[in-house]
Structures are given as C-alpha cells and as structure tokens.
Specification:
By secondary structure, this protein is α+β, with helices and mostly antiparallel strands. The chain has four helices and four strands.
Length: about 110
C-alpha cells in the first residue's frame, strides 16, 4: 500500500453539511474504504486547509478515483501528495542509479 496525504478544503456547501451533520466526516471515511483506501489518521486544521488525512491506497489510480468522486459532489477540493518513507526514498534513489543513462551522484 502507498501512503498519500490528502489536504482538503471544504466549500461553503461542504461547511454547511459538516455543521449540520458532523458525523458525515466518518461516512466519507467509509466511502474511502469502499474505493480501496484506508484512512490511517486525520486532523482538522486551522488555516488554508480544513483537514489533513493520511490515506493508504494501492496506487495513484485509486486516489485519483477517490478524489474525483468526492470532489464531484462540490463539497470539498483536494490537494494530494505521495508520501515516501526514508527507506523507500533511499531504495528508489539506489535503484535509479543502476538504470542506463542515469547520472552518477555529484561529489
């Protein structure tokens, strides 16, 4: 499973829905699971974004499908980042160094 950070900003419509039915937040989490993802952790934020959700999913296509479905409702906008562990980053960098045409590390 890959890890993704989903920053979400509620639209006025989404803010009204949340104010009227706060438990809707957990319904969205169940919908994420139905698409193949899993909410690992979630925070409400003060500032530019309203929520940060750490989501695990098999791949980018799953996250794309998920954010497209949720965004189509008009209640939130999403910014998605892929998160790599330090070990995954090192493995990716080491694997890439062996590929033909890869530039050697700068000294």
């Amino acid at each position: 499973m890959r890890t993704f950070l989903l920053f979400s900003t509620l639209t006025p419509q989404g803010m009204q829905t949340l104010a009227a039915t706060p438990e809707r937040l957990f319904e969205v989490n169940r919908e994420i699971e139905a698409v193949g993802g899993r909410v690992v952790r979630q925070w409400a934020l003060l500032g530019t974004y309203d929520f940060l959700s750490v989501v695990e999913a098999p791949d980018e296509a799953t996250i794309l499908r998920l954010t497209a479905q949720l965004g189509a409702r008009g209640s939130a906008r999403f910014e998605t980042l892929v998160a790599l562990t330090a070990d995954e980053l090192i493995e990716t960098l080491e694997t890439g160094a062996d590929e033909p045409g890869a530039e050697p590390p700068a000294s």
